[in-house]
């Protein structure tokens, strides 16, 4: 029900933008996006369709790393890619498969649970790591090689080692419950809601969108604040790289989502029109804000010179 509430909230106001369109646009685009953007993207597409009824937008959700590999390894057609980590675009796609990226939103790591989770009435920011290690507690996380939330979970746990002065704690937690690891973080939601899992590491925005309880982690470890950038950089995670036998190092930093248009886009003009809508303060950014994320437009991007002219207003050099 919460999802439909958001749709009603946004679709009706944005439909009023239709009167400002000088001409109708037609065609179709394919969008790959992070699983954590599933609800905001659906709401954005519905709003965009009210203004542009002759446009068909096809959404495909997966872990951001997996999305990037669909473009680079499989050559799947894609007109826009919205990643939960702009670094996935920079490390896996820029040069060979894309030429630019635009940062657009922030988020933060949290631990999500429900009323029937074991020890739900006890867990807090001082004991969560002890509760997750208990034998009768099951927790889930996403795969670091497929999903930024997966490697950010590892980063958060390693930062927790230092923050709580618990040497080796992260490795003990990471060695537990690996049978529950899934390709993307939203795959864990049904397991949580059915009672298979007691807790999951996931973005705070997803908890808000699904009306779930979440434990707010200390800012020193939740990867949310630019103020703690130097602290986050103390940890890193190796994930699979551009080829099956290569790896790339993902260094801890404040959480920033990014978007790009792959070189193989079959409808770049229409893709730019949707990107303009999504990046506008009264369009997609308003949806993101309502659904628990922090808009970061405009932000600095190293690839500013390659950003299409109509989108440069949403970036900084």
Largest pleated sheet: 6 strands, mixed
Gross CATH architecture of the largest domain: 3-Layer(aba) Sandwich
Terminus-to-terminus distance? 41 Å
User: Which spans have pLDDT < 50 for at least 5 consecutive residues?
Assistant: 1-12, 14-22
Note the run of SSEs as H and E. Answer: HEHEHEHEEHEHHHEHEHEEEHHEEE
For this structure, the CATH topology of the largest domain is: D-Maltodextrin-Binding Protein, domain 2
Radius of gyration: 19 Å
Coarse morphology: globular
Supply the CATH class of the largest domain.
Answer: Alpha Beta
Oligomer: single chain
Number of domains: 2
Strand order of the largest sheet: 2-1-3-11-4-12
Question: How would you describe the overall organization of this protein?
Answer:
The structure is a single chain. This protein has helices at about 1-15, 40-50, 65-70, 85-90, 130, 150-165, 170-175, 190-195, 205-210, 230, 270-280, 285-290; strands spanning about 25-35, 55-60, 80-85, 100-105, 110-115, 140, 200-205, 215, 235-240, 245-250, 255-260, 295, 300, 315. It has about 325 residues and is of the alpha/beta class. The chain has two domains: about 1-105 and about 255-315, Periplasmic binding protein-like II (D-Maltodextrin-Binding Protein, domain 2), CATH 3.40.190.10; about 110-240, Periplasmic binding protein-like II (D-Maltodextrin-Binding Protein, domain 2, 3-Layer(aba) Sandwich). The longest helix is centred in the middle third of the chain and has 16 residues, at about 150-165.
């Amino acid at each position: 029900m919460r999802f439909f509430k958001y749709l009603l909230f946004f679709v009706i106001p944005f439909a009023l933008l239709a009167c400002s369109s000088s001409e109708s646009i037609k065609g179709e685009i394919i969008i790959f996006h992070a699983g954590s953007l599933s609800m905001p993207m659906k709401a954005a597409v519905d709003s965009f369709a009210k203004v542009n009824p002759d446009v068909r937008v096809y959404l495909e959700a997966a872990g951001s790393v997996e999305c990037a590999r669909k473009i680079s390894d499989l050559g799947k057609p894609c007109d826009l890619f919205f990643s939960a980590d702009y670094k996935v675009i920079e490390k896996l796609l820029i040069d060979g498969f894309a030429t630019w990226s635009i940062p657009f939103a922030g988020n933060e790591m949290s631990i999500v649970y429900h009323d029937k989770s074991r020890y739900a009435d006890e867990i807090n920011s001082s004991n969560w790591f002890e509760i997750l290690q208990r034998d009768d507690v099951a927790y889930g996380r996403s795969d670091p090689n497929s999903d930024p939330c997966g490697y950010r979970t590892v980063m958060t746990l390693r930062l927790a080692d230092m923050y709580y002065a618990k040497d080796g704690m992260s490795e003990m937690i990471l060695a537990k419950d690996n049978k529950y690891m899934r390709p993307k973080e939203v795959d864990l939601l049904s397991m949580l809601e059915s009672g298979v899992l007691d807790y999951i590491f996931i973005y705070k925005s997803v908890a808000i969108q699904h009306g779930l309880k979440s434990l707010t982690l200390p800012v020193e470890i939740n990867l949310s604040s630019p103020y703690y950038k130097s602290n986050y950089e103390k940890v890193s995670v190796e994930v699979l790289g551009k080829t099956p036998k290569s790896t790339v190092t993902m260094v801890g930093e404040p959480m920033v989502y990014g978007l790009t248009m792959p070189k193989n886009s079959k409808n770049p003009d229409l893709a730019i029109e949707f990107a303009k809508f999504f990046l506008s303060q009264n369009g997609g950014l308003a949806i993101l804000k309502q659904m628990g994320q922090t808009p970061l437009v405009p932000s600095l991007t190293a690839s500013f010179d390659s950003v299409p002219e109509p989108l440069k207003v949403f970036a900084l050099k």
